[in-house]
# Entry
Amino acid sequence: MAMDVVDYRIHGEDMQFVEVELDPGEATVGEAGCLFYMEDGVDMDTVFGDGRGARAGLLDRLLGAGRRLITGESLFITVYTNTAAARRRVAFAAPYPGKILAMDLSRLGGQLICQRDAFLCAARGVAIGVAFQRRLGVGFFGGEGFIMQKLEGDGLAFVHAGGTVQQRELAAGQTLLVDTGCVVGYTAGVDFDIQFVGKVRTALFGGEGLFLARLSGPGTVWLQSLPFSRLASRVFAAAPQTPGGQREEHGLGTLVGLLGGDRR
# Structure
């Protein structure tokens, strides 16, 4: 299935947004709550499925919607189509401080496995599905549970990561040990497993948890220096406490709401 070919520009340093330029008739799909702005002539529509829209058959759309439901996402996804006679722009903003990564799936073997909630937007035709962890240990202790996002196609997809991002190329048999929450995504050839830290004293008092993620090549992996879970835990730990031992949640709740995209 041919994907729409879109132009884009990523703006900002730590609070980034991506601006996608659409030719007449082109479209992009975006995750709910990530829209920043769109120019006149861009039509916003909600479709059933995983992002492929009318280009996919009814069965494919049902399966795509089911996969999104498993990940905790909505059954629907938003499509932004340029209905004007000239180029128009639509922009999507990152939900918390970090970097937006442009992933050309045609150069990544047509598939990318990434952490849940990493997906921001993509060219129309990219399918947003799920990847199940086959190992029980990875599912329970891998930081992302049994389910991760799977992006498939040959177009551009944009994902978001916290803090600074590092891309690592792993040769066949090469292994990298990473904090479980710091894995943003990896290509299909990478083997993802977990490994016990090795020493009971280190596990109990080292402050790094009981397990590390073990990534083995060949393939490409992307790592983030500031997972949102780590940021949220530090903010919560720094919140002042009342005399009764309860944390004051007025200012903290506002900050967490802003970081987490609470739009009430």
